[in-house]
Amino acid sequence: MARNIAYVVLIVGFVLANSSPASGATSPVRKTSAAGACLGVWQPGAPWDMTGLARFESAVGKSMAIVMWYQGWGAANAPFDATILRAVADRGSIPLITWEPWDYTGGVDQPTYANARIVAGNFDAYITSWAEGLKAHGRPVLLRFAHEMNYRSYPWSVGANGNTADSFVAAWRHVHEIFSRLGARNVAWVWSPGVKHDGTTPFASVYPGDQYVDWLALDGFNGGSALPWGGWLPFQDIFAPSHADLAQINGDKPMMIAETASVEQGGSKAAWISDALLTQLPGSFPRVKAFVWFNENRAGEADWRVDSTPESLAAYATAAANPYYGPCAPVGGLGRRAFFPIIGAGPQGFLQRSNGSSKSSSAETASATARRSSSFSRQSAS
Q1: Is there a domain that residue 1 lies in?
Q2: Omega of the bond prior to 286 within 30 degrees of 0, cis?
Q3: Cα–Cα distance between 1 and 48 in angstroms, integer?
Q4: Does any domain span residue 150?
Q5: What is the pLDDT at residue 286?
Q6: Residue 326: its pLDDT value, please?
């Protein structure tokens, strides 16, 4: 999780939608100018255990349009499980699956999960099982594959296990092509680097190409004085430079903040939240259609939860109640123009899609939590 704290807020500012008829043909992307955003959350335990998520939503006074979680290929819960997808969808939320090719217990140096082995087909059976399962699910899914590839924090990262920028792109395309070939058209692909720092891999070199990506996303955190990197940084300082770089890569696709949060130490977290949600996103980041909060208290690191103090909780709840943020409700169905959520009463869907393209256990929760810790370290390492 190091700097991989993914909090996704779906914002409808520059709305993009694409229909996908059942025949398999695709219609041109439709652009709209509806303004607004949807909110999402990573809540430890969910979706296997929804208790914490229910508490979060009760505290902030809003149902989350997006529920994000981490799914490792080498985890005990790695096999596709339709029940957890249904649990998320049936509550009116869209799954945002951070799909990680690694064993979270093994650290960065895992040659088993090198890009070259993915391209060579060593994981094709596993990838196929997920593609078939998600297709059968038939409802909207956001798939965030191999995030923060620009940090040397994971086995798929550039610089780890013999990986290069080209090998990452090849691995991404290989996985995407399996889904495309099997017709998993309800899956939208989220390309999600971490915000840039000195020494990180340039975004453009690891971008798979417009036909392989539906959403552009960023991860970034305000570690304040609680962590040894960065210092107290406003939302704009964290995201604006990287947001500008993504806009140069593609001028149309919707963007999301896939992981973000702030600590209390070093400034006013409540003011940071208010500024991010009520000033920066509506005013300076109109293409951001989703905003996901990393709602975890990491022992020995930082308390990223929105309710770390009553003031911070009040700031988030006030922002979430603003008409800019929803309501967001899934509409339509597979192959229909607006089958992803819409904001407010407008007719536009916010999801851009490319052409051609329940059991709860302590082990599963621990697995997801451990993954998070690995990513935060990279914010300092890079």
Answers
A1: no
A2: no
A3: 19
A4: yes
A5: 85
A6: 80
Q: How many domains does the chain have?
A: 1
Q: Are 71 and 100 in contact (CB under 8 A)?
A: yes
199: left (phi over 0), alpha (psi -120 to 50) or beta: left
> How far is Cα 214 from Cα 255, in angstroms, rounded to an integer?
9
Provide the angle, in degrees to the nearest 10, between the axes of the packed helices 51-60 and 310-320.
Answer: 80
pTM as predicted:
0.83
Strands in the chain per DSSP E:
8-11, 16-17, 30-31, 37-42, 66-72, 94-100, 141-145, 187-191, 215-219, 255-260, 288-294, 297-298, 302-303, 328-329, 342-343
Give a yes or no: residue 17 inside a domain: yes
Residue 75 C-beta-side C-alpha neighbours within 13 Å: 24
pLDDT of 350 higher than 90:
no
pLDDT of residue 29: 23
pLDDT at 300: 80
- 17 - beta bridge partners? 30
